[in-house]
Amino acid sequence: MEVFYYLVFGFLAAVVAGLELSKNNKDRINTSQPFNSFKNSYLLVYSLMMAGDWLQGPYVYFLYSQYGFSKGEIGQLFIAGFGSSMLFGTIVGSLADKQGRRRACVTYCITYILSCITKHSPQYKVLMLGRVLGGIATSLLFSAFESWLVAEHFKRGFDQQWLSLTFSKAIFLGNGLVAIVAGLFGNFLVDSMNLGPVAPFDAAACFLAIGMAVILSSWTENYGDPSENKDLLTQFKGAAVAIASDEKIALLGAIQSLFEGSMYTFVFLWTPALSPNEEEIPHGFIFATFMLASMLGSSIASRLMAHSSPKVESYMQIVFVVSAASLLLPIVTTFLVPAANVKGGSISFSGCIQLLGFCTFEACVGIFWPSIMKMRSQYIPEEARSTIMNFFRIPLNIFVCIVLYNVRITSFASFHCFDLIEYYCCFLHVNAFPITVMFGMCSIFLFVASILQRRLLVIADKPKSEDWNAMKERDAEAEPLNVA
């Protein structure tokens, strides 16, 4: 069965290379030299930021276990990270609209560097502080950088269609190539150089520091709505009003939460799905294959978005249906393929089928990221972009915390799993729900997302019932009454 892994990886690599090399003028967006310089500057920073993130993932659980913490204590640390992203990260991320997106990006670097430094301490409270800082940094990573990019793109007068090129390249590099290279580099530091499990965190801090230097030296500041001296509560209220008053924004938030919730659940469950009888599977190599599939998806997305037809709102319906079907495979194989009773061994026939389905899902993930970024740039008002984007992450973080609470974790290594340590166990057992039930739940979420996407397509060209400026004027008139 070992040959099967190489065949899948080689096939995906060949398809990705073929897609990239076969692009013609019809598949490319004609741009200007100033835009290319701007795009490359952003991609450099984004790649450095993602390298800092990817380097840490495979060794978080391993480091905690080396410090002697129990699985229950480690589980609490992970839940604290997602809880911090939901509570504190939402507040800090929303400040970017008032205090500046460039400043928020620098804050991300500083916060994540401090989180890396805490990994040198074996004290539980210090590590908990690091998880809190990491949760805040995660919210900034997925809101501040995109908000800065969109605002700066339009401030410089670039064509809106060119934005999709930056999005697709960012996912191709940051969530694909950089993830693979970072995993290999982290393994080199820990295994080949024998620098210990803290080394990847130190390397991550160095990449983040380099990225911060580039930001400080070459990025200009931009804001959301600096005209009024609003407090944070008023800012949250304005974002909530924007979501409630514009169906397109509300649909976009629901679609994002449903897909990302399914994606994070998949991250926790793919290992036990492929090795239900403790089969020996190469976790790091499989993860690299997933990232290659994601690169394939982003390459497909770049071609799709280079043309005016089909619209993003149209083809994303198909993407959600395909992703829903791919996560049904663990359920289908459970009923159709006889289960093996022998412990250990190589991956089963059922596991091979599921692996192909999971690669399909990862390709859908690669299409999803640049496509959702493009839709956010179209529908979310510039004045509260970071605030609304962090609002979208609240239900996601709640969902992930519930999933973590309802599983008994044997190893969190499957999260960002690129660990090549041979003895590293990488599977979890579901305590509250069987794996098939959780995959079925994810598939339902994705199918619902396709229905909501269909609704978004229908109303995409309809004007908003009330624009952002009108809402601000209405709130300004209402504020004296609220005071009285």
Task: Describe what this molecule looks like in 3D.
The protein is an all-alpha fold and 484 residues long. The protein is built from 19 helices and 2 strands. The protein has helices at 2-21, 33-54, 60-66, 71-94, 96-99, 101-118, 124-141, 144-155, 162-192, 199-218, 232-245, 247-274, 283-305, 312-326, 329-336, 349-379, 385-405, 435-459, 468-483, and strands at residues 407-408, 429-430. Strands 1-2 form a two-stranded antiparallel sheet. The longest helix is centred in the middle third of the chain and has 31 residues, at 162-192. 50% of the residues are buried. Residues 408-431 and 479-484 have low confidence and may be disordered.
Q: How are the secondary structure elements laid out?
A:
Elements lengths: L1 H20 L11 H22 L5 H7 L4 H24 L1 H4 L1 H18 L5 H18 L2 H12 L6 H31 L6 H20 L13 H14 L1 H28 L8 H23 L6 H15 L2 H8 L12 H31 L5 H21 L1 E2 L20 E2 L4 H25 L8 H16 L1
Antiparallel strand pairs: 1-2
Organism: Rhododendron griersonianum
Family: Belongs to the major facilitator superfamily. Phosphate:H(+) symporter (TC 2.A.1.9) family.
GO cellular component, one term: membrane
Residue fraction in strands: under 5%
Total number of beta strands:
2
How widely separated are the two ends? 74 Å
What string, H for helix and E for strand, traces the elements in order? HHHHHHHHHHHHHHHHHEEHH
Backbone CA Rg = 22 Å
Number of helices: 19
Q: In terms of per-residue confidence, which ranges show pLDDT below 50 for 5 or more consecutive residues?
A: 408-431, 479-484
Tell me the strand order in the biggest sheet.
Answer: 1-2
Helical percentage: over 70%
Q: Characterize the main sheet.
A: 2 strands, antiparallel
Q: What structural category do the secondary elements indicate?
A: mainly alpha
Shape: globular
The average pLDDT is 84
GO cellular component, one term: membrane
Transmembrane segments: 6-22, 43-62, 74-96, 128-150, 170-189, 201-219, 285-306, 318-340, 346-369, 390-407, 427-452
Protein name: Molybdate-anion transporter-like
Family: Belongs to the major facilitator superfamily. Phosphate:H(+) symporter (TC 2.A.1.9) family.
